[in-house]
Amino acid sequence: MPDNLFAKGVAKSWELYAKDVGKSLIHWGSVGWVFSSLAQIFAIAINKNIDKKEKKFLIPQEIADGAVNVGLYYTITQSIKSLGDSLVETGGLIKKDTADFLSSVKDSSMSLKEFIKDKGNITTILAELKSTEKIDSKTAVNAAESFAGWKNGVGTIFTIAASVLACNVITPYCRNRIASVFQQHHIEKEKISALNKTRHRIVHTAQLPDVFHGFKI
């Protein structure tokens, strides 16, 4: 039974990601960031060389770092991948064979860009052409497969570029800014705590003058 479930899981993952590698990079990259953050938090929590006072500062900071890492990675990579997908679907980035095929079936009075815009996107056009009897269905299927492979490749390239940007530029900058805010807050909190302790000692050590010390009955 477990083997069967595993096989089904693998098959489902393949079905979901085989035609969109960029999506798999985004999803698994985000999962990787989540586990990395959890491991860091756990390591701090069980470290006996870090006192409880420091842990109260470090653990919330790591949680915030993790949220930033995951949130920015997913948002940036997904946004840039969506840009790549849009460029492919609207003909901004188009293969020659796809352009030639669409040019052969469009109305001669329309430009290729106008034809694509009128229909919505290239995927919609190819889906309609596969179901029509006006052209050879095999030709339409081959065109659709070629386009799908192109879109998958462009999406993967855009996702990798976005991952590099997110992991090496944007996320470290934002993480450092958040760490700075936490550290500043911690310093201010320590100053207030130290000041309160000083005042507490002054109140306890201060004594009223003994005005009756020299009075005798």
Task: Provide a descriptive summary of the structure in words.
With 217 residues, this protein is mainly α. It has one domain (19-193). It has seven helices and no strands. Helix 2 packs antiparallel against helix 3 and helix 3 runs antiparallel to helix 7 (137-205). It is elongated, with a radius of gyration of 32 Å. The termini are far apart.
Descriptive labels:
single chain; 217 residues; mainly alpha; 7 helices
What is the helical fraction, as a range of percent?
over 70%
Q: Sum up the overall morphology in one term.
A: elongated
Order of secondary-structure elements: HHHHHHH
For the biggest sheet, the summary is: none
What count of structural domains? 1
**If you compute it from the alpha carbons, what radius of gyration comes out, rounded to the nearest whole angstrom?**
32 Å
* Separation of the first and last Cα atoms: 99 Å
Q: Would you count the extended β strands for me?
A: 0
Overall SS class: mainly alpha
Count of DSSP-assigned helices: 7
Residue-averaged pLDDT? 81
The percentage of residues in β strands lies in: under 5%
Poorly predicted runs of 5 or more residues: none
